[in-house]
Structures are given as C-alpha cells and as structure tokens.
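REVIEWER CHECKLIST
Item 1: Sequence provided? yes
Item 2: Single chain? yes
Item 3: Sequence as submitted:
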Amino acid sequence: MKTLLRMGTVLGLMLYTMLSAQSSGNAIQFNSASNQYVNVPYTSGLRPVNAITLEVWINTNWQSIGQVAMVGNTETGGYEFDVNYLSGSYAIMFEVHRNGNYGSPFIQCSSLSTGWHHFAGTFDGRYARLYVDGTLVSTNDAGGVYPIHYSGYNNDLIIGAEAYAASTPYGSYFNGELDEIRIWNYTRSQTEIQNTMHSTLAGNESGLLAYYKLDETAGSTTITDQTGNGNTGILHGATFVNSNAPLPVELISFSAETHASAVTLRWTTATEVNNHGFEVERRAIENGKLRTENWQPIGFVEGNGNSNAQKNYTFTDRSVLSGNFFYRLKQIDRDGNFSCSQEVEADVASSPQLFELQQNYPNPFNPTTMIRYQVPNAAHITLRIYDVLGKEIAALVNEEQSASVRSVEWNGGACPSGIYFAQLTNGTQVKVTKMQLLK
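Item 4: Structure as written out by the authors:
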C-alpha cells in the first residue's frame, strides 16, 4: 500500500501527497476453507452502542466470489463487512443492525477495479455510510436515531468468516486478502478517513478500539491489537502474504490552480511501472450540489511507461467559464488496469477582475483554435485576427458585451500556414496574442 497524506489548503490549492507506508507490507490471506479464520474473544469493548467506524483494506483480486463475510460480529445484531448477492450481482456491504433490521450501504463488486481498495463503514445512530477509497458511495437512512443492536450471544469478532454464537464461525468463509483493520467508537468524517487510510497508525488515537496491522509472518498463531486494549486475535489456518506489489504509479503530489477562467492541474510521480497514462476527469458543483453526478473525462496525458525518476505533468482545462469544479486522475496501466487519485478542487471566479486575452488553445493549431478572454466591465468589445503584415483576416467579435468570460473559435482553414495575431479591444485598452497556424 501507499501512504496518502492530505496537506490541506494552501492559497486555494488542494494538495495531496503520497509516500511509502508499512515496513513489512504483509496482509492476511484466506482460501475459503472452514479452518481459516481469526477469532477475537468476546469483549464488550468491541460493541460500541451509539456510533461506529469500521475500516479495512480488501484486495478485489480474489480467485472466486460468493456470499462471504470479511470482518464483524453479527449474529442477528452487530456490524460487519460482507459480500451479498443484490440485483443480479455481488456487492460489498457494510451492515449495522438497528431498529429491528440492518442498514446496508453497498457497492457492486463489478464497479471496482482489480486490486486493493480501502473500505470504511460508519454509523452515527441514524445514517449508515460506505466510503470506498475515501469517497462516499452509499448511504442508508434508519429514519430516526437508534442504537446499534447486538444479539444476546456473547459472540466473538470474526475475521475471514461470518460470526456466530460463540468463537466458531457460522460459515460464509472468505477467499481473498485483507489488511489494516480498524474499529472506532465514533463516526469518522470523510476527511478523517482520507487523512489516515494510507497511513500506519500509532495505536493510541482517540476513539480507536482495535487496530490490526496484519503484518505478522509465517508461523504466527495470533494477530496483535496495536491499541494495547488486549483484543488479540487467535489465528486459525490463515496465512500472511506480502501486499507491497509494485503499483503502476507512485503519485507524490497533485494540485489544481485557477487563472483567467482556466484550471491548471499539476502532478508529480516518484516512480512509474507499466504506466500508459492519465485520464483527467472532472465534475462540477452548482449551488452546493453536484451539477454532474458522474466523472466526465476531459483529456488524456501520456505516461512515461517505466521510470525510477520523478516526472512532472501538467494539464490545463480551458473549457470552464465559472463555477466550482472537482478533478481527479484516472491512472491507466498498459494492461488496462486503472486506479483513481483523490480529488482536488478549483473555484473559477464568475466575476473577472481584469481585461485579459488568453493564449489561444491549441497553439500551434490546424485549422481551428479557441480564443478566450475576459471583460470586467460592460464595454464595446472587438476581437480581430491579423496576419504578420497587419492585414485584417477576420472580425470575430464586434458588439457590446457585459462583464463576462467568453470563448470564441477561429477557423483558419482558408488561410496559409504562418503567424497570426488576435487583437482584443474595449475602447481604451488593447490586448494582443500571437498564434501559429501549422498545416
């Protein structure tokens, strides 16, 4: 796994940094056999009543999938991560029992890329939420405030199977790999989840009930609770494997900045393995709500394949006029596998402060290019194209315009290759930019 540390907001930029984590990088592996599981003996300390957060890393590169359980203490009560068959396909669910039934936010397995994913389930007394890789994907509303209900059994916490009345699993044995299991006695926020999901914890964090790094090695008979609360797990048959397989890309920074009604994304990789490139995706916010629910691809930046040196990348989104936007990178390797970065936010001002003509894009171009400009006050605006001899080639704008940010396309198909100039005027100011038509 990698460590993702959210650095916060600096001059309006959202910056995330990835660093290496875990010294040994082991994970626990199950093969769906009835003799492979971990039981953590019953304790009331692992039964929070009013709120809970359960976190686990799950490798979706499983050999087979069915109705299985990964971690929990359910037996007509409690909480659990499991896989169930829903609407014609399997889904990973976070189940928490309250108000006589289970709240079960879920995500379809088919929507997940192959590889390691972080899952966090939270319950605050009313809402059960499921986060995948730090993103909220599903919410279940109890309709009122209720405590977590537990059965009358003093059943153990079970890892790798379904809990039952005591220490023996009910069944539903898991076939796959798990890592970094954490149980908290409060509802963690999305920001808290993002800030620590790639990091190794100290074990003394406030509200942390149990923490299993699962870095044990072959021959181990127990798994250690890093909190010091004594919730040691007893190992039955399961094995430990190395989880630090090389990732296609180690991303060490990703930021967004706004300027003149455009957004420039910058990111840096420390290493690259089999990297085809990055698809840049965007979604918009309007009046505090998502304008587009789904991520929209807006461009692609080619990767460097294999590299042990830092590589810097930039991408400028010139298709935004104003508003609040989120961006992420979809890194794609040469085998077609992909993973998505954390999102960064950019706020493009709706009221321009300067009279400005941007560099056309693309440049050089053939035969069309976009010319963007901003007007801070109402004025008579002209935008004309000239050749190197000063001859006017085209008049693209000649009208009264209000304060705004605008884009105009120029088609130079009828013109020969060469240097051209775009001239923007408002009656008192003149702005000029140089363009190259290359056929």
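Item 5: Key structural point noted by reviewer: The chain has a mean pLDDT of 85.
Item 6: Recommendation: ____
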